[in-house]
Specification:
14% strand, seven-stranded parallel sheet, transcription regulation, alpha/beta, Arc Repressor Mutant, subunit A, transcription, four-stranded antiparallel sheet, DNA binding
Amino acid sequence: MEELVKLLQQVAPEISLAIENRYTILRNIYFNQPIGRRALSLILSLSERQLRTEVKRLETQGLIKVSPKGMELTPAGENIIFKLEHFIYHLRGLNPIAQRIKEQFNCSYVSIVPGDSDEDETVKMQLGKEAACYLKKVINSGDVIAVTGGTTMAQIPPAMEEVPGVENITVVPGRGGLGEKVEIESNTTAAELAKKLKAQYKLLYVPDNLSPETMESVINEPGIREILKIVRSADILLHGIGGAEEIGRRRGLSEDEIKKIKEKGAVAEAFGFYFNKNGQVVHMTSSVGLTIGDLKNIRIVIAIAGGKNKAPAIQAFLKYHSPTVLITDEGAARKLLELEGGKEDE
């Protein structure tokens, strides 16, 4: 595939560009369908005239259908977009980048989604789809699956499918809530994922930003203690990686507290631990649920984070802990190698 892509780029680079553009259009229709042309043109920053021309071609080829409701992919369009994902992956030269990150940070597997979720919201949806596909491959009967919250993690349940032949699955939140939008809380993601898997679930109705004294009292309640026991028996963990300042604000920290954390050099947060760019823990907060120390006991740890701006946080966390799997996007992956002081093609 890589040889074919190189030949295409040398002989007809304009074809490669056309394929990328149409893939982007198809992907955005897929994740937003039905969608009108004007709305799509705003998402893609294309003029309606430019988009009209491309849409007409795609409609003529039988890849999309246009109705008063908007544009939708046909079955042929959905089939081809899945095949194009592999082609675009090699067209963008992402395989050697994934290999370098895998070797640099000692991950068992690295998956890179084309695009940058900071610039294109559908890339975040693609990250959720990639995580769902990987989970489907590795899940076993009797597994306990833990998930954390966040906007990227919330994209996993919509992309998940039931896994035939797998039974007695339990899905749990990996951490308590942060008191933010209920749609992106870990409890919601756990419940939605369980529904897709036809699994049972347990919820953790404890905020993750309590004072240490209150936290100690709450986690000793028999009901909470029983759920935490299940959480800490997790076989598979899907978790995000947050920027230190971003998570600090989501936790409701004051501006003075955030300033102090940043002065310590914190750039990343995971499970209540804040890390500097070298992967050293520089600050800790009270947290209910899984901790950093629990990761070594989990069979498969899947870290999911994307966007060029998230690269420093990803770098910091990976220097502290090598997850079994890293699922990221092109924007974060390229920036990550840049931060490591190397060029992508070295």
